[in-house]
Design brief:
By secondary structure, this protein is mainly α. It is built from 10 helices and no strands. Helix 5 runs antiparallel to helix 6 and helix 8 packs antiparallel against helix 10.
Length: 211
């Protein structure tokens, strides 16, 4: 029991000391990718003007407070989605879209995949933001409606398959590097990405024959 406790403490300390700093660095990097460059006043629509009109309608009694809040939230969601599209991560997604298109994915799914490199649990919220849906999660009916409208079920299943097959996250890979070495870590990253792409490509291309 003493040996197990000592070993557990050593591994826990190693994670906090080594991986903890890496997690912070990755978090800062991902934040920068999804934030900069700032969109400024380059929105395609005058969102602020629309919000002002909604507030004026509420103050005039033309709409209820609930309707006003829902409309403002929808506009703010669209603003967040456009900011994300304008960001470095959004541009990378557009650049990688031809590679993912063979799997049935668009640039939004490519961006979600990039966010999944940091942590796969943020993939859903990233897609929700791209579709201008706030507080998106697995139980969001609005998000489900948007996904059903824009993607065939085959694409949805294929995206889940791709997400499950590539490496867990960079934090896990850092721990893997500590145990197995840098060469093995890069091999695992490359191998799982290639495996995920090939399997998803086959599933999508074969699945299209039955649609």
């Amino acid at each position: 029991i003493k040996g197990v406790l000592i070993h557990t403490w050593e591994r826990t300390w190693m994670y906090g000391k080594k991986a903890g700093t890496v997690i912070l660095a990755i978090s800062i990097l991902m934040w920068m990718l999804f934030t900069f460059p700032l969109i400024g006043d380059n929105y395609s629509i005058d969102y602020e003007g629309r919000i002002s009109k909604i507030e004026e309608s509420y103050q005039s009694g033309l709409i209820t407070q609930e309707e006003s809040s829902n409309q403002v939230a929808a506009i703010e969601g669209k603003m967040a989605g456009e900011r994300l599209s304008y960001s470095a991560a959004g541009r990378i997604g557009h650049f990688l879209e031809p590679v993912f298109k063979l799997l049935g994915f668009d640039w939004k799914m490519a961006v979600a995949t990039i966010s999944g490199i940091a942590a796969k649990e943020v993939i859903v919220s990233t897609i929700g933001t791209l579709y201008s849906i706030e507080e998106a999660d697995g139980e969001s009916e609005t998000l489900k409606t948007a996904l059903n409208k824009n993607y065939h079920p085959l694409v949805g299943y294929n995206f889940m398959l791709f997400t499950l097959l590539y490496f867990p996250c960079l934090t896990a890979m850092i721990i893997f590097r500590k145990e197995m070495g840098a060469k093995e870590m890069f091999f695992q990253i490359g191998y799982t990405l290639l495996l995920a792409w090939v399997v998803s490509f086959l599933v999508f291309q074969i699945g299209r024959l039955f649609i």
